[in-house]
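Hey, can you fold this one?
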Amino acid sequence: MKSLIIGGAGFVGHYLIEYLAQAGRNVYATHLPNELTNKKATSFELDILDYDACKQLLLHISPDEIYHLAAQSSAAVSWKMPALTVDVNIKGTVNILEAIRHLEHKPRILLVGSGEEYGIVTSDNLPIKEELIAAPTSVYAATKATQTMLGKLYANAYGLDIIMTRSFNHIGPGQLPTFVVSSFCKQIAEIEKGLCPPVIKVGNLSAKRDFTDVRDVVEAYLLLLEKGNAGEIYNVGSGNAISIQNILDELLSLATVKIKVENDPERMRPSDVPIVFADIAKLKQATGWQAKYAINDTLKDTFDAAMQAII
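Sure. Predicted structure:
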């Protein structure tokens, strides 16, 4: 079984390579120039904005399954770099789908979307089911909602074997500090090491989110390509909401020094959703997936990795 990860050098890509290799797959992964690659995958440089390069690579590998992870994946960054976000998340996806459409050997495809596609959700629509109409409130979410629509379109119009996810917040060791949990961990670790004053900068702490360990997420992705139904959307998450305040409190309890918390306007989004969490019954019914990592264990692992990363 040949598994191709498009965007394999990122946070999720690293864990997915490890998981697929353990499952006995022949793993291939794409990356941008100067990105670190995992030795458990055969790696290729690829710019998904180059259609000809996408087509040639897919013809060369002829994969049995494709995990499309390549994205500008930060909502915060998408407000600052909307054009880049649109190019990578929409134009890049079209290039991949068009290249796949012209392959003689058609692979199964997982298009990884986001729970942020749903936008602001009223309490009577919680937990969020896949049938809820998307109403994105950020540039990033809008591009991911477009990706999902494109996936549906290509599955229906061309018969491509595409499965789509709406993946909620996933966290774990090694995530970039542009995301809230890894940002908290990095700041606290730097304070612990005496590199910074004992002050942590935060954004909106009242928001409640659905957090899942990345190691559980990649298992869900493999199970979906094994057992999911073509043309369907599946929520991937924990099915629970926890406030950013509770996340911060748990991480601060791991510190040995007293830390002051300060609001940072730069960390506030122009539009933020009060509470989000997924109904994951469809995922469980299709695959039998169950999360294995408790949130506090994930937070500790992530904090420990941030501490070890500081020499």
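The two ends are 40 Å apart (CA to CA). Let me know if you want another pass with a different chain boundary.
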